[in-house]
Amino acid sequence: MKSYLITSRQYYTDTPAVFRSILHERVAAHRPDFVLYRDKFDPNYALMAEYAVQTCRAFESVKVFVHQDFKLANALGADGVHLTSKQFDVIKKAKNAGLEVIVSTHSIEELHMVEELCADYATFSPVFATPGKGEPKGIAALKRAVEEVDIKIFALGGIVTPEDVKKIESAHPYGFASIRYFYRESDG
Questions:
Q1: Is the pLDDT of residue 185 over 80?
Q2: I need a surface site. Which of 47, 71, 72, 96 has the fewest CB within 10 A?
């Protein structure tokens, strides 16, 4: 199962040198397959996204994504862009720019829509309880989603421990995405 590290200012800061150090340390410790630079409020977003791309390039097998801005992702040489559930109209533009596209979804209907629009991946959330993200969908809904669509699904939301990862494995998603899971100390 693939793993997808999502950054958050709460854990990674918006101080460039500290951010780069923490991100490098977390990627080295957990070896995620995908990394998303995400910070909805940083006035220096483009610069920090550039640092995220540069930091992740030190790890050959890591694909690095930028949140929401496909033009910035393309300019920085990121592998792709992670679009919100309000950006379905941007999928084709991002694909035409040569980027891989991950889209946030919160229902099977949305999964069908992004699949039809040729997104490469989707997150399905929240699987477990997550602060401020509404009622959790649960494992049964995740399993149903995986069975109903062909798009590669990352389970997202409330995945914090290795036990949480084991719980979602039974639904056979393509992978899992998390902020807090990757900020904890690795087990290996």
A1: no
A2: 96
